[in-house]
Write a structure and sequence with these properties.
Blueprint: H1 14-18, E1 30-31, E2 39-40, E3 55-67, E4 75-79, E5 81-83, E6 94-96, E7 101-104, E8 114-124, E9 130-147, E10 165-166, E11 207-209, E12 211-233, E13 237-259, E14 287-312, E15 315-338, E16 344-366, E17 372-391, E18 403-422
C-alpha cells in the first residue's frame, strides 16, 4: 500500500498491481488477478490513479478509542462541618456530623470511549518508498461527579449536620473565609438575628460547604512523520519496514469546585435542635476552584515492520508492528483560586523521563475502484513509564503538593474506519 504507519495508513497496495502481471501495466478496465475471476471496474468520477504507482496520496479516518484512566482514589470531602472556634463543642477543630465520605474520585462513572480523527498525506517514490505525515486527535474524555446538601436518602443526624460538606484544606488566606453565617449556631446570643460580633464558627469555604463538584478530563493527540520501505514481495504478499519520528501528548486535568452558602441569603431550614440550615446564596467570594493539570509531551522515534497480504475480490489485510522510544517532557501544575479571581496560588514542577512504547495496527482494506481505498482496523498504542495523578488534591493551600506516581502501563486502543485517495 502507498501509505502506512502506526496510527496512519500502510503503503499503497502494490500487490494489486503485481498480482495482475504484465496486464496490470495496460489500461485495462478490470482488476485481473491470476487464478481469480476478473472484477469489472466501476467508473470513478475522481481523478485518482493506480494505488500501486508512484505519486501523491491523502487519507482521513474516524477513530473510536478508549484510554487508561490515570487517576487514583482519593476522598475529597466528608459529611459534617468543623467547629473552627470551639464555641459550640468546646474544642476547636471538632467535627460535627458523621464524617462519612461525601465525595471521592471513586464516584466518577466507568471508563468511556472517545471519538476522534486521523488525517494525513504522503508521496510514494518510484522505488516503492513512501513518505507520509499524519495527525490524530481525540475529543476530550470527561468524567463528572458531585455532592450537595442532600445526603443519600436524607439520612443523617437530627441537627442536619450531614447536609454540609467539609474538606481538610488549610493554610488559606482570609479571602477564602467564606460566608460568616452558615448555620443557626452562628447566632451565638440566640436572639434570632445575626450581627457583626457573631458568626465565623465554621470558617472557610471548604468548611460547611453545600455544593462540591469534581471533574476529570483526558486529552490525547499525536503526529507522525514516517517512511515506509519495501523489503520483500511475492505475488500475494509483501513485507516492508517502517521508521520515523513521533510526537504524542497526554493531558490529564482534575477540577474541583466548592460553593459555600450564606444562611442569610435565602430561606434557612432549622432543625428541631436549632442547628443547621439549607438554602442561601453563594457569591463569587464564597466559591473556590482547584485545578490539577498533568501534561506529558513526548518526542521520539520509532522503527518496525509490516506484513500485507492480498485476500482476493479487492480485499487485503495488513499488520504493522512498531517500537518507539520517547523523551517525556512532563509538567505538573496545581492551583487554587477564588471564583472572584482576586486571589490565587499555584505551584508547578517540570520533569523529564524516558518512555518506551509498542504499537500494533491490524487493518482490512477494500479497493472498490482504482485509486480509492476503504479501511477498517483495530489500533493499540501502549506506553510504559508515564505519569499518573495518584492523589489529585493537595490540601495545603500555601504549597499544594498533590501526589503523582508512575503509570507502569498505559494503553490507547480502539477501532478506525476511513478512506484514502491516490493521485
Amino acid at each position: 500500500m502507498r501509505y502506512g504507519s502506526t496510527g496512519g495508513w500502510t503503503a499503497a497496495l502494490t500487490a494489486l498491481v503485481a498480482l495482475a502481471g504484465p496486464a496490470a501495466a495496460q489500461p485495462a478496465q478490470t482488476y485481473d488477478v491470476p487464478g481469480r475471476p476478473a472484477y469489472t471496474q466501476i467508473p470513478n468520477p475522481l481523478p485518482t490513479g493506480n494505488p500501486g504507482g508512484h505519486g501523491f496520496y491523502t487519507f482521513g479516518e474516524a477513530l473510536f478509542l478508549t484510554q487508561t484512566r490515570t487517576l487514583g482514589d482519593q476522598t475529597i470531602a466528608v459529611r459534617g462541618l468543623l467547629d473552627s472556634t470551639g464555641i459550640i463543642t468546646g474544642t476547636p477543630g471538632t467535627l460535627i456530623g458523621s464524617g462519612f465520605p461525601a465525595l471521592s474520585t471513586k464516584d466518577f462513572p466507568r471508563q468511556s470511549w472517545q471519538p476522534g480523527f486521523n488525517i494525513g498525506a504522503g508521496v510514494k517514490l518510484e522505488d516503492g518508498t513512501s513518505i507520509h505525515f499524519s495527525y490524530a486527535r481525540l475529543v476530550s474524555n470527561t468524567y463528572h461527579a458531585g455532592a450537595t446538601l442532600v445526603p443519600p436518602f436524607f439520612r443523617g443526624s437530627s441537627d442536619l449536620s450531614d447536609t454540609f460538606l467539609t474538606a481538610p484544606v488549610y493554610n488559606f488566606p482570609p479571602q477564602y473565609a467564606g460566608p460568616r453565617y452558615k448555620t443557626n449556631f452562628d447566632d451565638t446570643n440566640g436572639d434570632g438575628t445575626f450581627d457583626s460580633l457573631e458568626g465565623g464558627n465554621f470558617y472557610g469555604i471548604w468548611n460547611g460547604a453545600s455544593v462540591m463538584d469534581i471533574r476529570f478530563d483526558q486529552w490525547y493527540q499525536s503526529s507522525e512523520l514516517g517512511v515506509t520501505v519495501p523489503l520483500f514481495q511475492t505475488e500475494y504478499s509483501r513485507i516492508y519496514g517502517l521508521a520515523g519520528g513521533r510526537y504524542t501528548n497526554f493531558t490529564d486535568r482534575f477540577k474541583w469546585r466548592t460553593v459555600s452558602y450564606d444562611v442569610t441569603g435565602g430561606q434557612a431550614v432549622f432543625s428541631g435542635q436549632g442547628g443547621a440550615l439549607g438554602g442561601g446564596q453563594g457569591g463569587p467570594r464564597d466559591a473556590a476552584e482547584y485545578n490539577n493539570t498533568l501534561t506529558q509531551r513526548m518526542y521520539g522515534a520509532y522503527v518496525g515492520c509490516g506484513h500485507e497480504a492480498y485476500l482476493g475480490h479487492g480485499f487485503a489485510a495488513a499488520l504493522d508492528l512498531t517500537a518507539a522510544g520517547y523523551i517525556d517532557s512532563e509538567k505538573e501544575r496545581a492551583k487554587y483560586k477564588l471564583q472572584s479571581e482576586e486571589i490565587q496560588n499555584k505551584q508547578s514542577r517540570n520533569e523529564l523521563r524516558f518512555v518506551p512504547s509498542l504499537t500494533a495496527n491490524l487493518n482490512l482494506m477494500w479497493y472498490p475502484v482504482e485509486g480509492v481505498q476503504m479501511r477498517l482496523g483495530y489500533n493499540a498504542y501502549t506506553y510504559f513509564n508515564t505519569k499518573r495523578i495518584e492523589d489529585p488534591v493537595g490540601f495545603n493551600y500555601s504549597s499544594p503538593d498533590p501526589v503523582y506516581d508512575i503509570q507502569v502501563f498505559r494503553i490507547v486502543h480502539g477501532v478506525n474506519v476511513g478512506i484514502g485517495l491516490f493521485f
